[in-house]
Amino acid sequence: MVISNETNFIVKKGDLTKEEEQKLSEHIFGHFFTIAQVAISRNDEKSAKEVVYIFEKIGLIANAQKFLETTCKIAGFIGRIGLAAAEQKFETVTSEAAVSLGKIRLTAVKRKGLTETMCIADFLRDVGVASAKQKLENPIVLDLIILNMLE
Question: Are 107 and 64 a contacting pair, CB within 8 Å?
Fold first, then answer.
């Protein structure tokens, strides 16, 4: 949690250069994603959900700071966790990923971040399709997909 809090602080501060933003995205976020992959492979839904939550917090902050690249990378990581969770039929993690993507997308819509809105929508759609293919029954994912299409 200390690493996640420090990462949030760095992103919230908002004075990253493009190069620093890219390094942060690739290095630290890649490690968080690896933790989620390992958690899913070990059937550890709780840890996978925690990584989704960490990514959501960072994604919301990055979006507020107008870090386009970071916002889209975070959405990609959340989307990939959602896909992996759907494959394992982890409904809770899949739903958490969809909800997190929905929250980040909503903030992008509110601040008129068209590029971020579109990249997040793509990942949200992918999670929804994977969820449907696995016949997961959680209605949150379906509701988010429908809301996504209406906007």
Answer: yes
